[in-house]
């Protein structure tokens, strides 16, 4: 267990149980025992390598980069992978701390990274609400080492707005989805979206901007999406709202995120609404969209590239001390599959199309 945590920096106890082939109860008991001895730090189901700990006979070589992420799974797994690859290529070490979307814990996690020797930071705060950046984020602008924000766009003019950042351009991603559906002959799609993360809020804003740029009016107010496993009644209400919109003439929908989109399509089928015959669907994230019964067309933010470019920018900042700051927005792609009734292709930033299976396309979703 100590070796696994040392290697990864932070890990969930449940994940360690699987890797070690023991029961979750055994892993939790051992984690508690190691934490009591000061060999691990334990917080909310996860364990971390102690800030002051070292490995006997081993000294860190090269630069040490710290990465704060709200999660190490789903969307952020690829972001982390891209950052790790860039750090390794430069001979730097990347250490990771996870906040589990608890913005109130972000600062403590970053202090742990600094205590562990991080000379520069990649920071993706665990914000969920629009007010979280102001309530929990302004300390990021006062960090004592260079920092790059990941997949976060603070308010213009705020202290955080002066930091380097690398983000996916979700407004452009929403435009790709709307433009694709309209190009297939549909009217403005219905938006089904969450509102519990910066990505969700950016998709909502991007959808509104996309309709405006195309001279379209929303067919109805956005339908609030919620996880089926956490709020079954809310999920059912959202699906029935979408079914009612179809009954009233809607023929297309943009759904954030992939998991919600898959479950929505499954429930619609039970209610007699077929995809794509009755409703064309575009998902947002492209993590598992290709694995649906009817593979879902999806907007694919460049998650891995975000991590890679952010790490490269941080390494450059640490290397030459350039005082100029950069806001880098990377453009998503649209991966076309069966849920819109169109042939498989990828629509890139230039608007050009690539046949499925060519460079830039993905035959299976990353998980």
TrEMBL record:
- Residue span of region Disordered: 346-367
A Pfam family = HTH_DeoR
> What keywords sit in the KW lines?
DNA-binding, Transcription, Transcription regulation
Question: Which PROSITE patterns does the UniProt record give?
Answer: HTH_DEOR_2 (PS51000)
Q: Which InterPro entries does the record match to this protein?
A: DeoR_HTH, LacI/GalR-like_sensor, Peripla_BP_I, WH-like_DNA-bd_sf, WH_DNA-bd_sf
Residue ranges of every copy of the HTH deoR-type domain listed in the record: 1-49
**Keyword set includes Methyltransferase:** no
Biased amino acid composition, Low complexity:
348-367
Write one Gene Ontology MF term.
transcription cis-regulatory region binding
This protein's name = DeoR family transcriptional regulator
């Amino acid at each position: 267990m100590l070796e696994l945590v040392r290697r990864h920096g932070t890990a969930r106890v449940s994940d360690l149980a699987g890797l070690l082939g023991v029961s979750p109860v055994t892993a939790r008991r051992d984690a508690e025992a190691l934490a009591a001895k000061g060999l691990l730090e334990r917080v909310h189901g996860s364990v971390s390598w102690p800030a002051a700990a070292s490995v006997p006979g081993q000294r860190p070589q090269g630069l040490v980069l710290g990465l704060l992420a709200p999660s190490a799974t789903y969307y952020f797994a690829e972001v982390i992978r891209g950052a790790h690859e860039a750090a390794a290529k430069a001979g730097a070490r990347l250490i990771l701390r996870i906040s589990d979307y608890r913005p109130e814990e972000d600062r403590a996690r970053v202090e742990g990274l600094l205590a562990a020797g991080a000379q520069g930071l990649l920071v993706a705060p665990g914000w969920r609400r629009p007010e979280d950046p102001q309530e929990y984020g302004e300390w990021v602008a006062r960090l004592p080492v260079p920092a790059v924000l990941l997949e976060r766009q603070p308010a213009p003019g705020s202290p955080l707005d002066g930091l380097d950042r690398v983000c996916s351009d979700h407004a452009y991603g929403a435009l790709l989805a709307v433009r694709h559906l309209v190009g297939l002959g549909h009217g403005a799609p219905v938006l089904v979206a969450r509102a519990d993360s910066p990505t969700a809020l950016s998709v909502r804003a991007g959808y509104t901007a996309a309709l405006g740029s195309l001279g379209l009016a929303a067919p109805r107010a956005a339908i609030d999406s919620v996880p089926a496993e956490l709020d079954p009644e809310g999920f059912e209400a959202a699906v029935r709202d979408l079914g009612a919109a179809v009954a009233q003439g809607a023929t297309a929908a943009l759904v954030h995120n992939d998991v919600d989109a898959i479950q929505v399509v499954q429930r619609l089928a039970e209610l007699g609404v077929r995809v794509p015959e009755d409703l064309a669907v575009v998902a947002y994230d492209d993590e598992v969209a290709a694995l649906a019964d009817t593979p879902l067309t999806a907007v694919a933010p460049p998650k891995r590239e975000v991590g890679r470019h952010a790490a490269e920018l941080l390494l450059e900042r640490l290397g030459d001390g350039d005082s100029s700051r950069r806001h880098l927005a990377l453009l998503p792609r649209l991966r076309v599959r069966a849920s819109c009734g169109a042939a498989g292709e990828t629509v890139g930033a230039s608007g050009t199309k690539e046949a499925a299976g060519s460079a830039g396309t993905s035959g299976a979703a990353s998980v």
